[in-house]
What we know:
By secondary structure, the chain is mainly β.
Amino acid sequence: MSNLLKIDPPQDFSSFVGTHFIYTYANGWKYEWYARNEKTCDYRIHHGLVGGRWVTNQPMTLVQFAPDVFKVDWHEPTGTCVSLSFDMDRRLLHGTIFFPQWIAGDGQHPEKTICYQNDFTEDMHRFRDEGPAYPYVIISEFAKITFMEQCGPDNDTVINAAPGQLPDGYTERSN
């Protein structure tokens, strides 16, 4: 007889997939994130340690904790790991970013990641492998979701340009 418990809640991603968010962390860092589909996300970093960085089709895992409460996790070619929890009703997000030393520690080089990562994946792997990775710099912050819109899944027009190419006031939109 199995001692495994059935604890997985129902998984309905229909209210989350296709949603585009702009949010600001308590430390002032501003991000933009899009749930492209159940397996990938796109994002832009507007302010923060690696402001100017953007990525599309980042593989991720997605789970639903409760109605309109979702968690996504991914591991980047840089060695950075990210975990985001979205509470869509309260427009609240909690993010934990695990930066390797080469990005956020002593002798840091965050500028090496400020690009459209998809065009430089081999470079990101090389920088990651050159390290150092440990100890990771862990940044854990709450953020306020200031803008949220449904754009539909797999929409290539949502995040399709570098942060610096967007019109003035783009990240200041709110709803």
